[in-house]
Amino acid sequence: IEIWTSWTSGGSGVYSYFIDFRYDTSVNTRPMIYESGAGGNLGKISYYQHNYGSSVDTSQAFSASPNPWTQLLFSRGTQGTPNNLKWFINGALSSQGNYSENQDFYTEKISIGRRYANSDFLNGKISMIRIYKDKAFTADEASSHYETFRHRFGI
Q: Per residue in 136-148, pLDDT tens?
């Protein structure tokens, strides 16, 4: 999942959703990407599956002030390494982890810039979202994507 965004952090205790694959409370196993101001995580971006209680967070925390255009690229391994998850920020590896839960994606609607329940709106802009199927990005590929698109955002 690749997202080009510019946003202002919601602050302490506030969630700002970039993308949410859930469509109601009965599907809490589907992933979401958000910034959480809860629990000392202000400014960190998380990939999270609610029912499994696991997340992979960016190691880089963003400021509460408006952030310039930023590329967030979340990559999940494929057949050989399906549980290897990586966060790239502006083409550079930010963090990685392993995730042992089912990561299947679905064909139902998704929410962009908000939580599925029509709340926790992103305070900012999303210019581009790309969802890749069966694609695990290498560091070189993530960097290449960043270099290819950054000029559109004056970076």
A: 899 999 999 999 9
